[in-house]
Design goal:
The chain contains seven helices and seven strands. The protein has helices at residues 24-27, 30-38, 57-76, 93-96, 100-114, 129-145, 173-181, and strands at 15-19, 44-49, 84-89, 119-123, 148-153, 164-168, 192-199. Helix 3 runs antiparallel to helix 7 and helix 5 packs across helix 6 (129-145).
């Protein structure tokens, strides 16, 4: 088993977080969001899909419910409401329209410039089409813009990455659990969140010290 290096979070970069669906901003990035807010560098958090499972009245109602839960969840983490953007794509949109990735890269390129972000943080899983889309989005946006790209992943995944580490979220665990509770989801007991640096920024903005 690979040994995890002890890495500390750098705070000089403004971070753009791209979560796949509502609840992931809390379960995958909750400790990171809370820590950045504590340090006075709140990230800009986007949620790509609406979590509805599809169109129609039932899907619209579920999407509205999850959007409201997302706003309550990030408030527990200390994120100002204006730092959350719900994109609202239907789940699986990339399967039905593969060209959507090009449009998203252009849109997030503009968004990262408008919000003065130097680092992108996305989920590193490839277990479904939406997660694969977001990882591709992060990689292509990084290559296009020169921004750094960081992957969030579970402790059992991607241990071959050579520039990885973990963030101690002990002080934020209670807030993270409150955020997760907004979705009536299982609450985390993990005291760390794992991240890997996929690509350094062109300006050498650091994610790790």
């Amino acid at each position: 088993m690979a040994a995890w290096p002890e890495r500390r979070l750098a705070v000089e970069s403004n971070i753009l977080i791209i979560a796949v669906r509502p609840s992931e901003e809390s379960s995958r990035f909750g400790g990171l969001i809370a820590e950045l807010c504590r340090r006075g560098r709140p990230p800009f958090v986007t949620i790509l899909t609406d979590g509805s499972g599809g169109a129609g009245p039932e899907g619209a109602a579920m999407a509205a419910e999850k959007a409201a839960a997302a706003r309550r969840a990030v408030a527990h983490l200390g994120l100002p409401p204006e730092r959350l953007l719900l994109i609202g794509l239907h789940d699986g949109a990339a399967v039905r329209d593969p060209s959507i990735l090009d449009a998203l890269v252009s849109a997030f390129d503009l968004l990262s410039w408008a919000r003065d972000c130097q680092t992108i943080c996305v989920a590193g899983d490839t277990n479904d089409t939406d997660h694969r889309l977001v990882q591709s989005l992060g990689e292509r946006l990084s290559a296009r813009s020169g921004l750094g790209c960081v992957l969030s992943f579970s402790g059992a995944a991607d241990r071959n990455n050579q520039d990885h580490g973990r963030i101690d979220i002990t002080r934020h665990l209670a807030a993270k659990r409150r955020a997760e509770a907004e979705y009536a989801a299982p609450q985390s007991d993990a005291l760390v969140e794992h991240f890997a640096l996929l690509r350094q920024s062109a300006g050498q903005t650091r994610f790790w010290i």
